[in-house]
Amino acid sequence: MLKYFFTPENVCLIGASTNPDKLGFKILKNLIEGGYKGKIFPVNPKADTILNLKSYKNVLEIPEVCELAIIVIPSELVCDVAEECGKKGIKGLIVISAGFKETGPEGRKKEERLKEIVRKYKMRLIGPNCLGVIDTKNKLNASFASEMPLEGKISFITQSGALGTAILDWAVKENVGLSKFISFGNKADVSEIDLIEEFEDDSDTDVILLYLEGVNDGKKFMEVTKRVSSKKPIIVIKSGKTEKGTKTASSHTGSLSGSDTAFNSAIKQSGVIRANTVEELFDYALIFACQPILKGKNIGIITNAGGPAVMAVDMIEEIGLTLAEFSTETTEKLKNFLPSASNISNPVDILGDAQADRYERAIEFVISDDKVDGIIVILTPQVTTQIKETAECIAKTSKKYNKPVITCFMGGKRVEEGIKILKENKIPNYFSPERAIISLKAMYDYWRNLNEKPKGKVIKFKVEKEKVQEKINYFKNQKINTIGDIEGRGILSLYGINVINSFLAKDENECAEFLKENDGVYVMKLVSPDIIHKTEAGGIKLNITNSEEAKRAFLEIINSAKKYKPDVKIIGVQIQPMIKNGVEVIIGINKDIQFGHLIMFGLGGIYVELLKDVSFRLIPITDIDANNMIDEIKTSKILKGFRNIPKMDIEAIKETLLRVSQLILDFPEIKEMDINPLVVKEKGCTAVDVRFSFEF
Amino acid sequence: MLKYFFTPENVCLIGASTNPDKLGFKILKNLIEGGYKGKIFPVNPKADTILNLKSYKNVLEIPEVCELAIIVIPSELVCDVAEECGKKGIKGLIVISAGFKETGPEGRKKEERLKEIVRKYKMRLIGPNCLGVIDTKNKLNASFASEMPLEGKISFITQSGALGTAILDWAVKENVGLSKFISFGNKADVSEIDLIEEFEDDSDTDVILLYLEGVNDGKKFMEVTKRVSSKKPIIVIKSGKTEKGTKTASSHTGSLSGSDTAFNSAIKQSGVIRANTVEELFDYALIFACQPILKGKNIGIITNAGGPAVMAVDMIEEIGLTLAEFSTETTEKLKNFLPSASNISNPVDILGDAQADRYERAIEFVISDDKVDGIIVILTPQVTTQIKETAECIAKTSKKYNKPVITCFMGGKRVEEGIKILKENKIPNYFSPERAIISLKAMYDYWRNLNEKPKGKVIKFKVEKEKVQEKINYFKNQKINTIGDIEGRGILSLYGINVINSFLAKDENECAEFLKENDGVYVMKLVSPDIIHKTEAGGIKLNITNSEEAKRAFLEIINSAKKYKPDVKIIGVQIQPMIKNGVEVIIGINKDIQFGHLIMFGLGGIYVELLKDVSFRLIPITDIDANNMIDEIKTSKILKGFRNIPKMDIEAIKETLLRVSQLILDFPEIKEMDINPLVVKEKGCTAVDVRFSFEF
User: Fold this and answer.
1) In what helix (H) or strand (E) does residue A25 lie, and over which residues does it extend?
2) Given an 8 Å threshold on Cβ–Cβ distance, is A244 in contact with B431?
3) Residue B110 clears pLDDT 60, i.e. is over it
4) Residues of A with CB below 8 A from B635's CB?
5) Superfamily per CATH, domain A583-694
6) With bands split at pLDDT 50, 70 and 90, how would you rate the model's confidence at B346?
7) What's the predicted TM-score (pTM) here?
8) CA-CA distance, A454 to B323, in Å (whole number)?
9) Contacts of A241 in chain B (CB under 8 A)
10) Closest residue in A to B278 (Cα–Cα)
11) Which of A317, A381, A536 shows the shortest C-beta gap to B169?
């Protein structure tokens, strides 16, 4: 679809310059020196030739139709030139020039006009305000990056040109091969989503790396990354995680950075791998691009030093991988050839005097063990350590097995030559054991996500959709944007969610009457649109068992409410049966402007607020998502039978989550919702308090 | 005290060799080539000269008394040679040779004999099984490390020789200067504690770096590090954090690795800085060795790229530093000279085309602002970026202010030359903004710890120590190792801790009698040494208000207990007043074999077990420690007035913590203790259930 950005038949550079200090010169030089095989047409109204190429006054003068135009002229001129490009029949524009949306209202207008022109002529546009595009295989350097990286299988998509320069500079120094590099700037047209789709079936791309500051179309992003990440790993780093961070992101980039919760949920649900730092991004990129996938969590360690191995084991425990237990056969083999002071169980310590041959045999024995899924080889540069030879042995052995082998050659100067050999043989070397282990974990998570069985599915329950539609139409017509308990429970009930029985009493006599006719223990609660925290307003009375108590409770509740808020609007008092021996949980909905509705689950009471022990997913959720949401919270053990609290009906919570998800999917005008609490018992669960708000 | 290990007048090398492959040759070569100015005496029974130095048959033959002997001969011969060294009057031994404790019982015996000899002759010993010692200022390379690092102000002490080689190799490559390097191996004599004390007043040591696998004398370690870290930063990395990690540590090093909780508490209470990875160790070392201390939490950022600045801001928020707010004067100054598209508030984005002069002025304005405590300068290698010149400007400006300046020049090849200049000017450069910020945080924590006012003190309450002594003597004589509620509360009470009133009833009639004479609401609890989880055994009855209920409750409790455990030993049933409207907390004691007693605090109920939301300190604790213990737990907000829960008496908890600390200090034979729950109310707190165990 976007092939002409990477393998164009020919290219014109509008704004080519004879001045070596200008970008228009650098880009032309890069195009030529990169080794691009197609024809290059510089465009410059004043020059005849630039860098020995004939230059044209304008695009229309070029004797051929170009597939790709690179534009690097002042922003005021860009739109007119783009119009010419459209007329000429050019397919793709890369607008390097800055001075658009990122500069304020004036620039934003220019950008809007540019977008219109692009649409009009059915062109596609990368940029403006970007670094350009590189395709190493096709030897196209349509950017002003100084050096072209080696050919490789990683494609890198970056929203920040500045970070792009740093990444290219890193790739060049570390000899990391890239397939494609795209800085998409203001993403006036082509976005990260288009590019991910472009690389979905690109045989030159094994790993997609992404630097993002914000996502425009969250739902599409999720849909595409979900599909593509089932074919190849997508690794993303996004800045703007905390509130202050987000503020900076919007003021800096003109991009609307969404709440990180929604973004995080999106990538979790799509199987995208998140890197937390640039370092992690690189670490992950290396292992995914260089090594076969880790198909289990059992890690073997071979080391010539105890300390670093302990650090690796610490990290394995911490992040949820497993220190492999070797088969007796492997242990025997290790025992038979290693010196007696060695540690023959995992981590295998082959001692400080280990030379390359000892490493080689130990690695061979460990990696061929079926109980080992991947290995890390640790080396410290001791006196007799054969650094180069050991690197060669590792390279040789690793090629025989379809399991990841990574290394941690620790140190600086002496280990350099070993690391060079490792790199040449696509063995990622990590500075510390911890980083090596964390990278393996990313791989394991990716594999597990791909192979999780059964796959989750969105369940469709039989519900009374039309009746809810009627109610919501009514609220809309009446301009009612918030509804409380009574109406709220009505809606939930139509979606098959069990709600508490409730009687609304308008005065103390109705209360007394109700208690006369109904046995049992009751709770009485104020119903008022003005008071949210009922307890604080004295709006709740427990353990009501007879008419006398009910009457008194009614009057006390009304009194307290009036004291709490003199002009309070009171609808009445609800009388509900008291539920005993249940655990209170909360299910909530809120809406993210980029990704849509988020559903939240947590244990109720003060702990939600205090510990923020909640889990989130984007709507719609699958049955597996519902399961994971419950499992993810730290307090979920309470629901599973803990001490003298019996096992609660987790299936009922799951079903409620799924039914809520269906409700929100059917009625996206629901902006927020809280079921707080949903009381779970050994059998079943009941929605007690509910609030909805709408966005019509 | 240990001067002769670093600045010996003269040195002998026992086991010097003519064979270039042997350590005995390498060490001699290192001694000579390192530039050591004193006399060197090689000892080898077979050679006449080695490397142009006259060689001696044995130590006794040497015409002078050496201050330091380096021994690198087979372990079987070491003890005899050490004996000769003692006779000769040598003061310090560095035993490089392996084959001691780390190899098993035989080696352990040899090591014990070696220790005896050292004691007998009042020598001191580093090793055995170590890499040796380096003093860069004195140009002493008494190790077999290949290259000598530059002279600097960091002294590095390592328990692992292997990790030592990696660190030296790193220091050489990165041009990081070290003052001293000591690999102390099996620490048969000189330990990390001796070395830390040695560097306490060493003017050549500004920063002490420590790699540990275990600590032998936890209390001494704490005492010394507390004192020394108030003079200079001590940065420690310890392997063996998780359970599996610890297991590996002991099998590998013969060193008994203590529980990490105790170690972590120890360093927290001593003001030692903990690095979690080798990378962090290096990162911290650089900032402490190169930059003035950060004296506040307000960080300024100057950048030529938005994305990385956002990452820095994210991390600042996450770890509890603050993004500085500039004075209006600074903002004005920035506004006046920066291009209009720049961001003039913090982080200051001086745009992608910023050259060195723009960096310089921006840095100057920001760092001179009193509201800024330290700065980080971020640079991405864009087209017009003057990498070298910018590095020079940073170096120049940073020297004018007594505030830390660190950088994050991102990339690889192009930024190399800039980083080189930064290094030469002692500006630490970090690969990622996150690592830079984390390093600043370590500095801030160190500064805050030093300057925390008021200083905490251990408070001594008036207590009935003698009476507790009597009780404990009795338990000891009776060989009673565990005591429950009734005796336990007796002890607490003598230390001024408020305990619940309790009546022990032997039969149902005593229960009935008690309720007849006492009004109120009571709880009844089984008293049995055999049942720990009383609730599960049906051993607790709540809300007892009259004789009838009390009688019935007694019988039911006894019945349930017998069903739960047929041969249960029953002492009786306690009757206690029910405490309402309190919050349950837990105070516990356990004993670490290396560091002694740990005191724990957490919120009671199932949340302690589920969330592990507890804090630890080593005994004795100060009033500030008690404060921090309460503040540290996530659920502590519940105690401070939360929603409709009133503010609880935190002072009473503090006092209880301090009184428990005093009790344990007075009676170290108390091995474990649990007050669970301690019920806190708006005024006061009450110990309800208590258990003690002793180690006589």
Assistant:
1) helix A23-34
2) no
3) yes
4) 607, 610-611
5) ATP-grasp fold, B domain (3.30.470.20)
6) very high
7) 0.90
8) 46
9) 314, 318
10) A432
11) A381
